[in-house]
Amino acid sequence: MNLRPRAISVTLAIGLLTTMGVAQAERALIEPSQIQEALTIETAIEAQSATAAPTDTAWYAVLKGSTPVLITAPHATKPYREGSYRFSDGAGTAALAKLLNTLTCATVIYTQYRSPSDPNYYDDNAFKAEVAELIKQHKPKLLIDLHGSSTSRPYDVDFGTMEGTSLLSRTDIVPSLRKALRKEGLRNFSDDYFPAAKHPTLTRFASSLGVPSVQLEINSTWLLPSQGDIYAQRFSQLLQGLTRYIRNTNDTENGACRAGGV
């Protein structure tokens, strides 16, 4: 009896699996050194979250890029709202934004010291003015506003779109984001639990300037690289999902960007 060579059998098996819808996995993008960098950023910004910016330093940081995506993290530090400083969403949102600048060359802006005016609650502040200028200069096709949500929430990510209004008819954005994140292990999604519609949010602000916008309320268990172990892996998965989404939707091969802060 003639037996087929093992190599042919393996090839046929792979072909059969592909036919059945079991696609070959993509090679991982994120390196441990990048998560170590995120840990360093998170730790440094968390330490100054409640501190006023030095007189010669802005309370927010901007990293410019060439990809037509603008990423904001307005609650990485404690924001001032209605007479007092509130809790922050955690410096992991700033770490995520900064790594996305490096990996995709998206332009990012995040708070690095306590905010004298909540950028996601008031329009009349320097952060919002900077966002308006970045939109004018870079003409982004999408704004992604990053937030950390309570660990008690049942979802991994809630997509806030003002009930779809802030997407400006770009109905592809949320399904594509879901698909990219699901491939990296995020599973539980929610739509418009926090719709970004009640107050002068960044999502509302950017969409009023003609930029399709989405607010991501990310369960904070995905935003704690400094906790190590499974938390570092979860941050890596989240970072990889957003990196792939931005690269794939903007036709960038490696997206690497080393633009400095401004």
From TrEMBL:
Alphabetically ordered keywords of this record: Signal
Source organism superkingdom: Bacteria
Signal sequence interval, chain numbering: 1-25
Annotated protein name in UniProt: Ketol-acid reductoisomerase
Lineage, opening ranks: Bacteria, Pseudomonadati, Pseudomonadota, Gammaproteobacteria, Pseudomonadales
